[in-house]
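Quick one: structure tokens for this chain, please?
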Amino acid sequence: MNPRRILPFVVLLGWAGAPLVAQEEQEYASPAMAEMMAAYEKAGMVTDHHKALEKMAGTWELTVKMWMDPAAEPMISTATSKSEMIFGGRFLAEEVTGEFMGQEFKGYGLTGYNNVSGEYEATWADNMSTMLYRYTGMFNEAGEFVSKGEMLDPLTRETIPTWSTLRFEGDGMVIEAWEERGGENRKTMEFHYKPKM
């Protein structure tokens, strides 16, 4: 094809597309777009709330106590926890490996602070359940991390309120897990974290 015939079409397309490019640039430079970008930037910032999770990072030896029956002695098992801050310090990722009732146990947790909602959010999943546990929480005035959630009972399919408290003891941590059944609160698990030497 003759280049002289193509040239007018190229010029015409460039001229017709110029207003679209200018309009797009204007939209990105608009006050509404600037406000939205600032809000998203603020939502993604690392704050002191995120830095507070750094104290939980490390490699830990775990002693786990579990009460199937509140009146009985707890079952005791051991595990190892490896926790690290990821995504530029925005989340604490924890991987737990061990043994429970003669079976290999693996679990994975993720905790972060949501700048938009103004609270911590956490999830937990492991190889002995298909439930994805979700929690929200905050540090209280005593420096304890208190989180709340719920679980669906596999037997009754009843929604069970759950909560836990994490407190720092010396160079370690202790987590106590609770649930409410029939209007009564009962401790279900206790985790003792000690630095792995």
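The longest strand covers residues 75-86.
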